[in-house]
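ASSEMBLY PREDICTION REQUEST
Request ID: AP-0331
Submitted by: J.K., bench scientist
Number of chains: three
Total residues: 919
Priority: normal
Notes: Please return the full assembly, not individual chains.
Input sequences:
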Amino acid sequence: MNPFKPKQRRAIPGFGLTLGITLSYLSLIVLIPLAGVYFKAAGLGWDGLLHTLGSARVLASLKLTFGSALIAALFNAFFGLLVAWVFVRYQFPGKRLFDAFIDLPFALPTAVAGIALTALYAGNGWLGQYLEPLGIQVAYHPLGVVVAMTFISLPFVVRTVEPVLAEAEKELEEAAATLGAGRWITVTRVILPSVWPALLTGFALAFARAVGEYGSIIFIAGNIPMVSEITPLLIIIKLEEFDYAGATAIAAAMLTLSFLLLLLINLFQAWTRRSRNR
Amino acid sequence: MSQPRDHSLQDPPALPPEFGTGPLVRKNSAITEPAWVRWLLIGSALGFLSLFLLLPLASVFTEALRDGWGTYVSALREPDAYSAVKLTLLAAAIAVPLNLVFGVAAAWCIAKFEFRGKQLLISLIDLPFSVSPVVAGLVYVLIFGAHGWAGGWLAEHDIKIIFAVPGIALATIFVTFPFIARELIPLMQEQGTDDEQAALTLGAGGFRTFWRVTLPNIKWGLLYGVLLCNARAFGEFGAVSVVSGHIRGQTNTLPLHIEILYNEYAFAAAFAVASLLAALALVTLALKTFLEWRYADQLAAARRH
Amino acid sequence: MRTLKTLLKPLLIVTAGLGFGQALAAEPLLNVSYDVARGVYKDFNPAFAADWKAKTGQEIKIEQSHGGSSKQARAVIDGLQADVVTMNNPLDIDAIAERAGLLPKDWQKKLPNNSAPSWSAILFVVRKGNPKGIKDWNDLVKPGVKLVIPNPKTSGNGRYSYLAAWEYAKRQPGGSEASAKDFVSRLFANVPVLDTGGRGATTTFAQRDIGDVLLTFENEVRLIKEELGPEKFDVVIPSLTVRADNPVAVVEKYAARKGNAALARAYLEYHYSDAGQEIFAKNDLRPSNEAVLKKYAANLPPLNLFSVEQSYGSWAAAQKIHFADGALFDQIISAR
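STATUS: Completed
Returned structure:
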């Protein structure tokens, strides 16, 4: 289905310029500073690294952080797609208002988000007072970590899927329908494949953002070691001891893990894109 | 790559007679859902948003107004709050345009060309999101701090990076780094290169093609990206906190000012300033809504396109 | 295209309008301080400025930076140009001396009372009427009692609470290091939330209704009552508590570079003046001057105290035994 031969693509100019800008800016702002993290962590040596990263507490926190981020990102992927769909395709009262509010989790400082969520979900909060009698504890519980992560990464999926969904051509759906496809088939075979790459992007971003989150979670999690202690908090604890090497070692481990996961998601995304166009 | 843009499809072929009812009705029902499905979807989407978005926001505003409008207004009129607003706007005004230029350049080379290591590049662009904000601040301390790699040289020349405006701007750039690029990449990939090919074939130069063909196509995605980037630049706390130095009235941004108020148990004032941040973000969103409304016909044309 | 221009225009105006003109004519005095000292310095700085003006005729400007004590120390080490540091823990000033050499290692000898013009102590805050009947440390380890203590790894408040509990257990009849470890383990098993800072812990206790007891500094109590409800809390003074000194020091290298050395020194000396000591007492910090402390005995009653230096020789030793990576606190908290 790909109508473009590589030869034709060369006709588009600006590759060198834009790639040059991209790589220099990326290096200056991200890569060189992050290399500093690895450099500092390397000061620990292998034994030190293994000692720091192999501790049960660090491992438990990594499990909690990455596990919760995954759940939050999946949750956001599902509801984000739903919200984007509803915003693009349907008319209903209050749509503009809801649409305008989507980005607010980014604008609120994460600490404020954490405080507001804790106030809501604590035993004496608006929601907590109904949930706790049911035996559902959110604040000061690992579940609180998921809730906070869901909130702070909520806009990603909605905002990456929305423009693509708006762009998706209704003509194709019409064609599918004309050819006798039922609505469900049209949605799953025509619409979903076209938003799938954007959905994966949104998922990857939400996941990445959730993994790194610190400010809101420390308010709601309870921060009990082995139970509700997230990895970024362990980094802070190392820093409090002026242990820069230990802090950067944990940071480097997080960074490597996140990077590998992002790479995996992005490769998968590219693969689905290619197989769709074949 | 995108679906083939066969513009002849804009005139749908006449429907076979067995479809019975008029083509218009048929067409609409074929590309939309029954009313009950529609309302079910709308209901669950709004339910989700209310629970995870509106309720926390409502509690921010409730807390802000707990001690009445007097406290609210005086919290916003404090000189420290004013200087924090200025610094926050300044940091965003530096970070957003730089990330905008980068975002467009990155999206162009990633979406319009095939090259080795592309997914690697995309993943590297995503990376700042997964870096804990504290670490994001720390990396600049490791470089520009008094004991950092560049620290000695900077001190000799009396150049202040961290604990001053440049450090705050850098930290803001870092945490908002991927926004615009990541908003544009999937969109531009979806759009493909045929419009540009056409323009180039017709003799337009590269820059002119970008300005006249690509930019109009991506402007709404670009707008979303800028808004997100801007919102996040306003709200960033962790990274900025590390490089700010927390000097009252000098290097405190709005989120840091909120932390101070909260730590003084001035909850109403803290939430009042937080609601101001939310309101600042809403102003940019109102601008977006206005533009959408003002250019509704263009937008519709672009979408039909 | 008009869309984009409409968008960019306000942005450009904002950038141009704000400008970069952050330079100041004279270098103000920068006091880098810990988190909860804000209230004190709001009273202290104008008093000192007036005194300085009366003596020298100079108008001065004093800037404050507040944050977690070790975080502030890190900022100074990494280049935040403080003229003076005022902390709640000598370790953080030691760190500045050792890691950055910005002040001499014997900084504690430069001013009276080991350079600590004021101090505070750990007390218990309980719910009104003390429904759980909390009287002393041994009541905190009872099953069913929940207490809120901030994380000793990230807050001075938590460190002092931990050390006080340890010392109490050790001083019980038949007490030993082992029994103390057991006691503190049971105590932390009763902690449902480990906030990262003292103020966060207070909010958890007061606003979220978590826990029966909050362990905090004496100077925090009045603010808690004033801001969070006077009828909601009572204070319990335990049979033994810890003296938490608030040391101060001139960051000599920075002060000299900025030409503020004399001013910085005078600023710290003013901490020891009667006027300065009164300001501390009025803010519920215990002044190092015994006479002033006696004057405020109604608010600041005598306590049965020990100090970290008494028990461990130095703060650094206590830190190493208890709070270093993998040390006693880590063992206790990971095992719970």
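REVIEWER COMMENTS: Confidence is low (pLDDT under 50) at residues 1-25 of chain C.
SIGN-OFF: pending second reviewer
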